[in-house]
Amino acid sequence: MAVLPAPHVRSAFGWRWAMVGALLGGLVALTFYAPARWLAAALAQATGDRLQLINARGTVWNGSAGVVFSSGARGAESISLPGTLAWTLRPVWGAVDAALTLPCCAPQPLRLRARPVGGGMELDWRDGSSRWPAALLSGFGAPWNTLKPEGTLDLSTQALRMEFKGRQLGLAGRATLDATDISSSLSTLRPMGSYRITVDGGPTPSLLLTTRDGSLLLSGSGRWSGTAMRFDGEASAAPGREDALSNLLNIIGRRQGARSLITLG
């Protein structure tokens, strides 16, 4: 014959199970209904306030916000994208799938998968394209806030993967940026030209800058060390445009005759 626990023992067990249920329910609610402002705060902290979500609404999993690019917490330069960003996050096995809807800049949602790897984070971007105003570069501070570029930036990606580990950034795949009809406050020529930047990932990611057309001729190449880019290039003026571009050439690099040598990193 089974012996039933005393009433006070059954009551204690029931109370404990009720507490466990309440805690689990609270955890589930916190997970699925965490406010979007938590994501905004985490992103601002992770980027040193260089990428900010303003007036975030909704939840971490489904939300919207304005987007501001800034030169940092103490930076004086910032620029806002027109319209709003809407995002949808969906947990999958060991990762999170994200869809980013940006009517201002992408004809289709930008999609990626984020997963933790070896003490860091890996972002796999689905192949896609987007168009951005070149003016947003001014929000990143020097030298862009001096150049104040205008024009359009068309970005396309192929099998692009980014791996963050502390201050290290690894790259795989390819990203191509077409900068079209670029002008600057430092020159009266409008536009100065159109350019292409190609980034190829691998053990030592590389960057190649070429001029598609225009009066300001730019070329160069670079290597990504994992924490910094080493870039060597040069700028010059097309025949007949030397006077109009002289001031700009003096600023963007070290003059060597008709050329301006550009060294970064």
TrEMBL record:
<dbReference type="GO" id="GO:0015628">
    <property type="term" value="P:protein secretion by the type II secretion system"/>
</dbReference>
<comment type="similarity">
    <text>Belongs to the GSP N family.</text>
</comment>
<keyword id="KW-0653">Protein transport</keyword>
<dbReference type="GO" id="GO:0005886">
    <property type="term" value="C:plasma membrane"/>
</dbReference>
<keyword id="KW-0997">Cell inner membrane</keyword>
<keyword id="KW-0812">Transmembrane</keyword>
<protein>
    <recommendedName>
        <fullName>Type II secretion system protein N</fullName>
    </recommendedName>
</protein>
<keyword id="KW-0813">Transport</keyword>
<dbReference type="GO" id="GO:0015627">
    <property type="term" value="C:type II protein secretion system complex"/>
</dbReference>
<dbReference type="Pfam" id="PF01203">
    <property type="entry name" value="T2SSN"/>
</dbReference>
<keyword id="KW-1003">Cell membrane</keyword>
<keyword id="KW-0472">Membrane</keyword>
<dbReference type="InterPro" id="IPR022792">
    <property type="entry name" value="T2SS_protein-GspN"/>
</dbReference>
